[in-house]
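Let's practice the habit of predicting before peeking. Look at the sequence and jot down your guess about where helices and strands might fall. Then scroll down.
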Amino acid sequence: MADIGKIKDELSKLTVLEAAELVKMLEEEWGVSAAAPVAVAAVAAGGGDAGGAAEEKTEYDVIIKDVGPKKIEVIKAIRAITSLGLKDAKDMAEAAGSKVLEAAGKEAAEEAKKQLEEAGAVIELA
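Done guessing? Here is the structure:
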């Protein structure tokens, strides 16, 4: 059995983007979604009160509203954030309303938004 304390210590050393990438890799490997149980818990905790749910929002979607004039820089940023291949990143950049990250933590979403905006894109956190 693995030493859980060591695993926790190693995970604590990850950056927010590395942690998001790890989650994505584990979801693909195990065929599960880390976001679904949290979303259900948030709805249950909110009791259907939309105002209360907005105040407690912990997950954000990073959405490209406009790629801007520096499309290549935006594609590079998408690839760095998501680990997508060139074609998939290009397709994402070209489709307005594409979700670069889905159900990401606040820090990861803000970091991704910052990187994409520095590359020239117009980003929305939803």
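How did you do? Residues 4-125 form a domain with the Ribosomal Protein L30; Chain: A, fold (CATH 3.30.1390.10).
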